[in-house]
Amino acid sequence: MKANAKQLAREAESSAVFEAVARAGYVANGVIHILIGVIVIVLAAGGRGEGDQAGAMKAVAGAPAGFVVLWLIAVGLWALGVWHAAEGLLARDRSGDAKGAARKWGRRMADWGQAAVFIALGLISAAVAMGARPNAEEAAEGASRGLLEVPGGPILLGLIGLGIGIGGISFVVMGVRRSFRTRVRIPDGKRGRTLTTLGVVGFVAKGVALTIVGVLLVIAAVATDAETAGGLDGAVDALLALPLGPWLAWIVGVGFIAYGIFTVVRARVARM
Question: Which UniProt keywords apply (predicted)?
Fold first, then answer.
């Protein structure tokens, strides 16, 4: 069964059509992040909106033929999710030692984690296309409240928050160290420098936002207060509540736009 699964994964990765659709998933993800960045800037300027993926998709739904765009986004994200799932399944240990096995499983978990995120985002896009209007912030609070009410729930919520926070820090590190360049083909000259700059700014900004989400969940777990928990929209609200919060939110919003542009370009230069 494992051999059959790997064979299917290899066939999927060798399909030019499937690769093209998966690359389109990067475009879809980039567009979502650009919209999030715009919404965050609007919030920083005193406007209203939902600064998360669901809010961005609802903004798309309000445009002419928005439901068609949402379905295209969903298909692209699902294809990209399946691609990452296949990448994780096909990850190999070339050294044969303990460190090699650890690297293989680390790569697998990273790819499978991304696969889960892209597939989930595709489901949200499809749901919005069909008329649903999900509120990610309320969903996060509801899920946290449910966890806090079961034995061991606060510990699990804290671990989830810790995991998201570590993921956020890893984004910051990837941006600062520019390690994201191993997954893309950076062109020479000015275009390459511009793309690298977009990647640095974008990865750091997204990492900061994810780290805040993780901190909010840990605080909710410690205080056993689900209303403290939140998603990306809650992270923006937390930023706005800080001294110089609107300026910080502007910076994060610009960073999300930079990450979105980088991700759109990544559709062409990603190593797949």
Answer: Membrane, Transmembrane, Transmembrane helix
DSSP secondary structure letter of residue 186: P
> Crossing angle, helix 16-44 and helix 66-90, to 10 degrees?
120
Contact 254, 247 (CB under 8 A): no
**DSSP summary character for residue 167:** H
Q: In whole angstroms, how far apart are CA 165 and each of 113, 172, 239, 252?
A: 14, 11, 15, 16
The dihedrals phi and psi of 35, each to the nearest 5 degrees, come to -65, -40
Average pLDDT of every residue of the chain:
82
Residue 250 pLDDT greater than 80, yes or no:
yes
148, 226 contact by CB (below 8 A) = yes
* pTM beyond cutoff 0.90: no
> Using one digit for the tens of pLDDT, what is the confidence trace for 59-69?
888 888 888 99
Please tell me the distance from the alpha carbon of residue 195 to that of residue 189, in angstroms, as a whole number.
10
The Cα–Cα gap between 156 and 164 comes to: 12
- What tens digit of pLDDT does each residue of 160-200 get? 888 888 888 999 999 999 988 888 888 888 888 999 999 99
Helices (H), the chain: 2-13, 16-44, 53-61, 66-90, 98-129, 136-148, 153-177, 189-223, 232-240, 245-269
| Rounded alpha-carbon distances, angstroms, from residue 54 to 60, 76, 103, 242 | 10, 16, 34, 24
Q: Which residue has the tokens 């990306």?
A: 232
Q: What is the mean pLDDT of residues 79-92?
A: 82
Beta carbons within 8 Å of 62's beta carbon, 6+ residues apart: none
CB 124, CB 54: distance < 8 Å? yes
Compute how many other C-beta atoms are within 10 angstroms of the C-beta atom of residue 81.
24
